[in-house]
Amino acid sequence: MKFLSLFLQKIIDLDILHYQKDFINFLESKKWVREPKNLYEPLDYILKLGGKRMRPILTLMAADIFSGAYQKAMPAALAVEVFHNFTLIHDDIMDAAPLRRGKATVHEKWDVNTGILSGDAMLILAYQFFENYEPIVFQKLAKLFSKTALEVCDGQQLDVDFETRNDVAIDEYIDMIRLKTSVLVAAALKMGAIVAEANEQDADLIYDFGLNLGLAFQLQDDYLDTFGDPATFGKQIGGDIIENKKTYLYLKSLAIANEEDCKKLQRFYNQKLENNSTKIAEVTQIFESNNIPVLIKEKIANYTEKAFQTLSSMHISEENKEGLKNFGLWLMNRSV
Fold this sequence. Notes:
Order of helices and strands: HHHHEEHHHHHHHHHHHH
CATH architecture: Orthogonal Bundle
Number of strands: 2
Radius of gyration: 20 Å
């Protein structure tokens, strides 16, 4: 499996490198800082922090698949990236996070008020990039974007609500990550299809592909947070356990574990500790003894397969279908 993952990684790296390079050049060509500088410098700062740029790359990839002209989708891809970074600024404020990609978060480097206002400006700027398109394309993009932005807010609120609830069901959690994470992945792909003027059926199918792939992506994040390799994951292992995040691992354990394990889990998740090493070790042991790593991997594979099922109905080449499938397999097997 490790060999397969490395092989697919090489395929994906080669395939998306030109999208990534061209997108970054387009991003860096924009003059973000203007007066008042205290509003726009934080915007410039977070956009230059880096990241995989996965969402805008998906927009370009979809446009290329349906039209062979991905450059036309650059403004839409930039709207996706600016919106995503807007959500990161506000998420960091809500989580009181000190770091983002190893650097000070916007509200730490400036202040909370600046973070809120700069984030708001980013949301408005994201919409402005759609003005590069003809009215009918603009209307479709703006309609999808508004729907997605509101859904992301819905998901964020549910995530906050779950922190103080002890009765969260697995289906509720799946719906939350669908809204908070998956809908933006799906919308990024569909925006590329809209710019390429793909037919409505194909645009909806690639949205469904992204929706299921986004769920697999987030569940893989849940898995890696506890069972990932610290050398490659890039974040602290056990972070969700420390923060008492009610992820699929936790909720599935409560659904199938014996009474003793359930009580122990609930006790750990109802407290914040100074030293978390024992907590991480004991919670991880409960997950393992209840076969949770295997069960979440099965769930990830299930959503990935649901994504692949949409490919058969798409009016695209077999080569492009294979490319999308390889991308999905890489996401399912990634270690970062």
